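Format notes (please read before filing issues)

Several people have asked whether sequences and structure tokens are stored in separate files. They are not. Every record keeps both together, in the order shown below: the sequence lines, then the token lines. Line labels are part of the format and must not be stripped during preprocessing.
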Amino acid sequence: MIQEKTNIVSDKITTKNTPIIEIKDLHKAFGDNEVLKGVNLFVNKGENLVVLGKSGSGKSIAIKCIVGLVIPDKGEINVFDTDITKIDTIELNEIRVRIGFLFQNAALYDSMSVRENLGFTLKRHVKDISEQELEAQIVDVLESVGLAEAIDKMPSELSGGMRKRVGLARTLILKPEIVLYDEPTTGLDTITSREISELILELQKKNKTSSIIITHDMACAKHTGDRVVILKEGVIHAEGSYETLEKSDDEWVRSFFI
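Then the structure lines:
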């Protein structure tokens, strides 16, 4: 396995070296299709880790394992110093509340307004919240993604970029310590993609979040990633900074940056 070590390293990597996520020897197969064949990776506290790989390489499967949406066949997944493969549903749900997951399509409820989408999520996890506090938190999180004016709109009235922002707001309303982004800029134009990438950085700085960013968008990878890993044939094939991997001696690795 190639390990492209980082020469130019951000302060986050050098000063915050306690992994908040650590995956060891992760395996997952669907029938005869072995997708993950021993993935090992970690995310430091306060770090944005970008995961690259060809379509079907298992990127999304790996992060779904972190929140228990997919059950691995083998391996350890330590989140907040707890191996989630060895805990019951109650304990897993307690950890899930601390993790935000932004799906590719934002996964909004089409029959609910933006306000109702966010309120439904908050009321499910925060008991006995007053209507006044509920409204205040909804407005606050929408302002953080620049969409306060869309509070009464329906998802069908929103552009792709706006839907993505609302999906991010719904993720953030529970104040997660970890955010998992699955193709956050897919289907967006260049300007909107840049805005979403800027938001990811702003939220990392403001909320001190740790993130895994699955993407095919190299501009997003370069802009948001403190560190990059590349999946190939079910394992981590290369790791390092964007700048280091871009100049790799491995032609296959360099092909991502052309």
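For reference, the curators noted about this record: The CA atoms of residues 104 and 184 lie 6 Å apart. Residues 1-16 have pLDDT under 50 and may be disordered.
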